[in-house]
Design a protein that fits this description.
Layout: H1 2-9, E1 10-12, H2 13-19, H3 24-32, E2 41-50, E3 55-66, H4 70-79, H5 84-103, H6 106-114, H7 124-135, H8 138-142, H9 148-164, H10 174-190, H11 203-220
Antiparallel strand pairs: 1-3, 2-3
């Protein structure tokens, strides 16, 4: 159920503000100042409660923030990210740090060797899009913790997998299939599960579920 998923992974805005020990008004100010992400989900409810005491109806709009975004709120206070340029610079210091670590890892080195053109896509236009999506709450939807490091890792995992499977099943060597399998496992650790109704439209479907069934199950057979 959607609400089960939301309440397991997110906090409604009032509860999120309370968890961060900040007023809802201050949280709204940070969002409007473009230093904190907007809610990742907005849930509009038309509810009705029936009991022997009363018949009660209510319309309400709930704004859900990823629980992991509380760590970004902590960073705002710790590093004085009180303006967009400071927040953006801090975000990309961490993002670029994750990139450097990944590219020097065994998996990263092998992926770049097989698909060397992927990293050229991480240009200034991509950075602008990434920051805008972060502020819009997009990475609260599609990563497990919404942190800059996970944003890069999720993006890289999807890009490398999509490149590797572009030729379709039967086009990869056994060595490349093993590399693909490792990349799928890696992506699964940083990408969110998504709400049940979203999964068929997401990279989880394309890059994890479909890849396992079309490429990796055949490898194991």
């Amino acid at each position: 159920m959607l609400l089960n998923y939301l309440f397991s992974n997110f906090l409604e805005e009032g509860a999120f503000a309370q968890a961060c020990d900040v007023s809802p008004a201050e949280l709204t100010r940070l969002i409007e100042a473009r230093v904190f992400p907007s809610p990742s989900y907005v849930y509009e409810s038309k509810a009705r409660s029936l009991s022997f005491v009363s018949d009660f109806a209510e319309d309400h709009k709930y704004r859900f923030h990823l629980i992991g975004h509380s760590a970004w709120f902590d960073a705002i206070g710790r590093f004085g990210l009180d303006a967009e340029d400071r927040a953006r610079s801090h975000f990309f210091r961490r993002y670029e740090g994750a990139k450097e670590i990944f590219l020097s890892s065994d998996l990263g080195l092998q992926l770049v060797e097989v698909t060397p053109d992927i990293m050229s896509q991480f240009d200034s236009a991509h950075a602008t899009s990434t920051w805008t999506n972060f502020l819009d709450g997009v990475y609260g939807v599609c990563t497990r913790d919404g942190q800059p490091e996970s944003v890069f890792l999720k993006q890289a995992g999807v890009m490398f997998i999509e490149k590797m499977i572009a030729g379709g099943p039967g086009t990869l060597s056994a060595t490349h299939l093993r590399l693909l399998e490792r990349t799928v496992v890696f992506l699964d650790t940083v990408e969110s599960d998504f709400a049940p109704h979203e999964v068929p439209h997401t990279s989880r479907q394309r890059c994890i579920i479909d890849v396992k069934s079309s490429f990796l199950d055949n490898m194991a057979a």
